[in-house]
Prior knowledge:
Blueprint (H helix, E strand, L loop, with lengths): L5 H6 L1 E5 L6 E6 L8 E2 H7 L16 H5 L1 H4 L8
Antiparallel strand pairs: 1-2, 2-3
Amino acid sequence: MKMASRDSYENGVVVARCGGCNNLHLIADRLGWFGEPGSIEDFLAAKGEEVKKGSTDTLNFSLDDLVGSQVSSKGPSEQN
């Protein structure tokens, strides 16, 4: 699990390396270093995406959460 301080998330810049794809993902940019200031919540809401929140004690993921609805709606033979 990756963690960041609340102060960094609310007042600074948070970038995390993804364990799945090994890329860096922008989580929060309150200073506007990478464009319009905001957080992942703001960025997703602007795109009309649903933002799911929860504590680390109650993480529940569906197949759609993990692989995306477009991939999971395909049959096994259509995924590659």
